[in-house]
Design a protein that fits this description.
873 residues, alpha+beta, six-stranded mixed barrel, six-stranded mixed β-barrel, 27 helices, 17% strand, elongated
Length: 873
């Protein structure tokens, strides 16, 4: 106790002495060392003698700290207080660093929040980490996204031992209708009876399925989603027990699910899965599986078990030959493939932004460290070790990065809110972009690691100084070369990463502009589209469907303000069907060698509605498409593909369905201008048009041209023929195209924002380096001007270093940018451009911005007054 008391007393005495005399002693110590060195005493002897005279202030101070109980915390506390004083003493410099880091850390936190929600967080149900998606796979092509049949499901469920639950669903559109309430179409799944028990979901009102509901002959029942109950039934509690029609068949509402529950993927209606009609056939593959793994069972083990069962089934039933099973996590199934790659690219992009920000700040810290060399030399002369100085500077850097991170949280929250709004209509409802402990842990790690990353090099540079040179000659003569190579390397690094980011953004923007520029003849802002789904139970055959369309078309064309109206299997740019084609007199026996073609089924008048010019032949008439009157109109590109250099009018071909069954021979009656029907790909198949009578599809699009919005009149017209038939996806064509291109629009804006921030940082970085280098050469420039150097010579002298850095950075960036174009061209459905001209446009733009940033300080240098410059210190 006595020894500890004496330690405290000694510590307090020395601390008091230091606090009272610190400033005065430092001043006199500096003067003493400088005087001794000037008098010819060696630097080491001068320092030792002065330290003896003045009591070794820093050494004594640290020794006292070490003798204090809990001395390490005391030293860190002391360094922290010093860091705060240093930050406050250089407010504008600190503010610039904090703002730069706020952009880097804020963008990283925002993107990691998105990545965490899309790729990392399990589905928000109990045991969500063990929830898996089960699908068939083709053993020859390793396609892991094939549906399976109900008999196969029964075999897998009976024989598999890796699952606590194994359930199946099949999805289809569901038209909900009842007397006095207009019909609406929703997403319907038919599911096995324990689907709700698997995810431990209970009904908000009523009940969910019982095993008896899935028995053949049981009364049809339906469970509705909270949004259906709220929007269609105005949250009426008495909805339970109400009889409705689902796809024309009666059913009783037995339950309402809680708000937000739409398992498995944005579902609105749930009905029991009954093994009736085609569903009971082994070759009728329409089911998707979901399960909960038993505790301790891995995905690999469960997949291997199902593959073994699939092999045994295939040996008994030829229809299953070559099929296996795949087990993936729910996240992997829903958000795997291209979406996963895009989000990881986003994370890499903001990682580049943070590295550029750290390089920018490191350059700023290097510039400031050169101005703090006298301070560091005095601390070294007072006995501070190199580790003490490095530790002090790193604590200051971490403080700055933490302040930048706190400010960046606001930026992250704003970015998350924007992305949430931009994707609200197309993302699964269970994906919630919220911050959790994982995100805040990532944020804290970013703050600390960023401070260490940009602070370590300046700290090491500042702590390695020549005390004699600094005290004897000052900083001017030694700062010209210290850190120059490091600053140059950081600028090169910034420009290389910025070029890569701008290339990624340029690919997205170029791809979006290319897609929006297709089909310029289509008046997308005056065309309204909506889809009709004619259910099989109400429209049992092709004749019934054609009869309905024949009645509907004249009524659509008679709507006030409508100039043209037609029906088609897909509106312009909204997709098409694909089948194999065989030309007459050119037989191909091997199905794998037959070419593919895209086609659109349409009514007469479709070409006038979308303003697609016919270049040869004629349009369809009312008899085309009937038996023995099969006809087609090909685009110019399709005709050149199959009959190059020949007149295609009168030529014949036939199509093969998905079961390799040939259709009737079809005669070419016309050639149209080229049109892009599929916006999501680059490699477009040849396109042709056939009459709707020839195909008789049950799912067609209404295409109506009108300056005013005809949607209400269209809905009334349809329901005048069938009051249980809703209009689905009603949109102006320009809005439908924008929704189709959401991927390019949203991610293009995101990557462009990242790239512009990176370019701003890189430009500011090279400007700061050139400006600082120019300032350190003020006297030299003044001498050159006094000796007659021209403005052009001074301009080149100052800009030469910056131009060299820009050139090296662009060269390194180009090396990385070319592989990036090939990677992004594989995302999704090949919708991204791989045109290398994007890289060169981006490189030219970045070079122009960089040269301008170099020119600004160079221009200022050409206006220096030589007399003032020569006197500058």
């Amino acid at each position: 106790m006595i020894a500890e008391f004496l330690t405290w007393v000694r510590f307090l005495v020395f601390r008091k002495k230091h606090s009272e005399l610190d400033d005065e002693l430092r001043f006199h110590l500096e003067q003493s060392i400088a005087a001794k060195v000037a008098a010819g005493v060696s630097p080491s002897d001068a320092r030792r003698q002065s330290m003896i005279e003045f009591g070794g202030i820093e050494t004594t101070r640290e020794q006292c700290d070490r003798e204090r109980p809990g001395w390490w915390a005391g030293i860190i506390s002391q360094d922290a207080r010093y860091a705060v004083r240093s930050i406050l003493a250089h407010r504008w410099f600190s503010a610039a660093i904090v703002a730069t880091l706020a952009l880097g850390i804020g963008l990283n936190t925002m993107v990691f929040t998105l990545v965490n929600a899309v790729l990392l967080k399990p589905y928000p149900v109990p045991n969500g980490d063990r929830l898996v998606s089960i699908a068939g796979r083709n053993l020859s092509s390793d396609d892991r996204s094939l549906p399976f049949s109900y008999p196969d499901f029964q075999d897998y469920k009976a024989q598999a031992s890796s699952f606590e639950f194994f359930e199946a669903v099949t999805a289809q559109p569901g038209v909900l209708s009842e007397p006095g309430n207009p019909p609406d179409q929703y997403q319907l799944v038919r599911a096995t009876s324990r689907i709700f028990s698997m995810v431990q979901a209970k009904a908000f009102l009523g009940r969910t399925f019982l095993p008896a509901d899935a028995q053949p002959g049981s009364a049809p029942v339906v469970v509705i989603g909270y949004n259906v109950w709220q929007e269609r039934y105005a949250s009426l509690p008495g909805v339970i027990g109400r009889q409705v029609h689902v796809n024309g068949q009666p059913a009783n509402i037995i339950g309402v699910m809680p708000k937000g529950f739409r398992f498995p993927d944005n579902v609105d209606l749930w009905m029991p899965l009954l093994p009736i009609l085609d569903l009971a056939k082994r070759d009728s593959r329409t089911l998707w599986g979901y399960g909960i793994l038993k505790s301790g069972v891995t995905l690999q083990r469960a997949g291997a078990e199902l593959d073994g069962i699939a092999g045994r089934i295939a040996s008994q039933f030829p229809a299953d030959k070559g099929l296996g099973m795949s087990v993936l996590t729910f996240q992997q199934r829903v958000n795997g493939g291209p979406i996963r790659i895009v989000f990881l690219l986003m994370l890499a992009a903001v990682g580049f932004v943070l590295l550029i920000a750290c390089a920018d700040v490191a350059n700023m810290m290097l510039s400031r460290s050169l101005n703090r060399q006298r301070e560091m030399s005095i601390r070294t002369a007072l006995g501070a070790s190199r580790w003490r100085i490095v530790r002090q500077l790193l604590i200051e850097s971490v403080f700055l990065s933490t302040l930048g991170g706190i400010l960046g949280l606001g930026l992250a929250a704003s970015g998350i809110y924007w992305f949430d709004l931009a994707t609200s209509t197309i993302r699964p409802t269970w994906i919630l972009f919220t911050m959790n402990y994982t995100v805040f842990g990532y944020f804290a790690a970013l703050c600390i690691l960023s401070g260490l990353l940009f602070g370590i090099l300046p700290a090491l540079r500042s702590s390695k100084i020549n005390v004699v040179d600094v005290l004897k000659e000052g900083t001017h003569n030694i700062t010209g070369h210290r850190g120059a190579w490091l600053s140059s390397a950081l600028v090169v690094f910034q420009f290389a990463l910025t070029l890569v980011l701008l290339t990624g953004a340029g690919i997205f923007v170029r791809s979006l502009l290319d897609r929006l520029a297709v089909n310029p003849f289509v008046p997308a802002d005056q065309i309204t589209t909506a889809r009709l789904h004619l259910t099989e139970d109400r429209y049992k055959d092709n004749e019934a469907r054609i009869h309905f369309y024949d009645q509907l078309l004249p009524r659509l064309r008679s709507i006030a303000g409508v100039s043209h109206a037609a029906i088609a299997s897909g509106a312009p740019g909204m997709g098409s069907a694909d089948e194999q084609i065989e030309l007459e007199h050119v037989p191909i026996s091997n199905p794998a060698e037959r070419p593919w073609i895209s086609f659109v089924a349409q009514s007469p008048g479709y070409f006038d509605t979308i303003h697609l010019p016919l270049q040869q032949g004629r349009d369809f008439n009312q008899t085309d498409g009937a038996s023995n009157h099969e006809a087609a109109v090909l685009t110019r590109a399709a005709a050149a593909r199959f009959w190059p250099g020949e007149n295609p009018i009168g030529r014949r071909f036939r199509l093969f369905d998905d079961k390799n069954k040939p259709g009737p021979w079809i005669t070419v009656i016309g050639i149209s201008a080229n049109m892009v029907q599929e916006l999501q790909g680059r490699d477009h198949k040849p396109l042709l048009f056939v009459p709707y009578r020839q195909e008789g599809w049950d799912n067609m699009a209404l295409v109506v041209e009108s300056a005013a919005d005809p949607l209400q009149a269209m809905r009334k017209t349809v329901q005048s023929l069938d009051n249980e038939l809703p209009l689905n996806e009603p949109l102006r064509l320009k809005d439908a195209i924008a929704e189709q291109l959401w991927f390019l629009r949203v991610f293009g804006e995101v990557f462009l924002a990242f790239a512009l921030v990176a370019m701003l940082m890189a430009s500011v970085g090279i400007y700061a380096v050139i400006a600082h280098a120019t300032g350190s050469r003020t006297r030299e420039i003044g001498v050159r001007v006094a000796l007659g150097a021209s403005r052009r010579n001074i301009l080149f002298l100052v800009m030469r270093r910056g131009l060299w850095q820009i050139g090296c950075g662009l060269a390194l960036g180009l090396i990385a940018a070319f592989p990036l174009t090939h990677l992004m061209a594989s995302l999704p459905n090949g919708s991204l451009s791989s045109d290398p001209s994007v890289i060169f446009v981006v490189a030219f733009t970045l070079a122009t911005v960089g040269v301008f940033a170099c020119w600004l300080p160079a221009r200022r240098a050409t206006g220096l007054d030589p007399i003032r410059a020569i006197r500058y210190e």
